[in-house]
Automatic annotation (TrEMBL):
<dbReference type="GO" id="GO:0005262">
    <property type="term" value="F:calcium channel activity"/>
</dbReference>
<dbReference type="InterPro" id="IPR036537">
    <property type="entry name" value="Adaptor_Cbl_N_dom_sf"/>
</dbReference>
<dbReference type="Pfam" id="PF19584">
    <property type="entry name" value="MCAfunc"/>
</dbReference>
<keyword id="KW-0812">Transmembrane</keyword>
<feature type="domain" description="MCAfunc">
    <location>
        <begin position="24"/>
        <end position="165"/>
    </location>
</feature>
<dbReference type="InterPro" id="IPR045766">
    <property type="entry name" value="MCAfunc"/>
</dbReference>
<dbReference type="InterPro" id="IPR059179">
    <property type="entry name" value="MLKL-like_MCAfunc"/>
</dbReference>
<keyword id="KW-0472">Membrane</keyword>
<keyword id="KW-1133">Transmembrane helix</keyword>
<dbReference type="GO" id="GO:0016020">
    <property type="term" value="C:membrane"/>
</dbReference>
<feature type="region of interest" description="Disordered">
    <location>
        <begin position="195"/>
        <end position="247"/>
    </location>
</feature>
<protein>
    <submittedName>
        <fullName>Protein MID1-COMPLEMENTING ACTIVITY 1</fullName>
    </submittedName>
</protein>
<dbReference type="GO" id="GO:0007166">
    <property type="term" value="P:cell surface receptor signaling pathway"/>
</dbReference>
């Protein structure tokens, strides 16, 4: 916080509480246009702050306060601007004799005010650049994380079992094992019927995709042989033994 002497009542600072940096700069610019002495210094100071205000508007300073690491530097910048406003305001509230007597001291205060404001501004900009670099690094990491999507091998075995009803080549054991995990409380026949209904649900794929086509074929294989689940469950062990022995 700046510690300047002879700037009037410090209680005036409370009236500026709650104003962000851009609004404080606007107040200083307006006050600088109505000063009685040190007019040139006040207007130079105000012109310099207008440049800072334009930059802060581009940075959306009100949104920067949401970030914890930005709060303290912004508060320090705003505090320095409040003292800057009191400095400019003193050039219109004080008497001519006081301003003449304090002439060089007030010139020194203008230099100190601008230097302090610029230092806090650099700190705010530095933190902003660091945050932008972090965001770029995270974005690059996300772009490098290209996931490969494929048909799971276990799911492929189940699909083959559903599409091929030949007991010699059909891995029904895999099918039974999978369905028993999916539907632990259902008999094999009921689980297979439930799975059949699931295959009739339209898959969220683009029109004409191979995946949707295979799902349609799976459903059709069930429709063509409505007794398939029952036959597989009741006759498969015996039939497999007879037919596979001839291979």
């Amino acid at each position: 916080m700046a510690s300047w002497d002879n700037l009037g009542e410090l209680s005036n600072i409370a009236q500026l509480t709650g104003l962000d940096a851009v609004k404080l700069i606007s107040l200083i610019v307006r006050a600088a246009s109505t000063t009685r002495l040190h007019k040139r210094n006040c207007r130079r100071f105000a012109q310099h702050l207008k440049l800072i205000g334009g930059l802060l508007e581009q940075l959306h300073v009100s949104e920067l306060r949401k970030y914890l690491e930005m709060r303290e530097p912004l508060e320090q910048l705003e505090d320095a601007l409040r003292w800057g406003y009191l400095l400019v305001n003193s050039c219109q509230d004080r008497s001519y004799l006081y301003l003449l007597a304090m002439g060089w001291n007030i010139v020194y205060q203008f230099r100190k005010a601008q230097s302090e404001i610029d230092n806090y501004l650099r700190l705010v900009l530095l933190i902003t650049l660091v945050d932008n670099a972090r965001i770029r690094d995270r974005l690059e990491y996300i772009e490098r994380d290209q996931c490969e999507y494929s048909f799971d091998e276990e799911d492929k075995k189940v699909q083959d079992a559903l599409l091929n009803p030949d007991p010699c080549t059909n891995p029904t054991i895999v099918l039974k094992k999978t369905l028993s995990c999916l539907y632990p409380n259902l008999p094999f026949n009921e689980a297979l019927q439930k799975e059949k209904k699931e295959t009739n649900v339209k898959a969220p794929e683009k029109k004409g995709s191979n995946y949707s086509k295979s799902k349609g074929e799976t459903a059709k294989s069930f429709d063509d042989d409505g007794d398939y689940p029952k036959k597989q469950n009741d006759e498969y062990p015996k039939k497999q033994k007879d037919t596979c022995s001839t291979q």
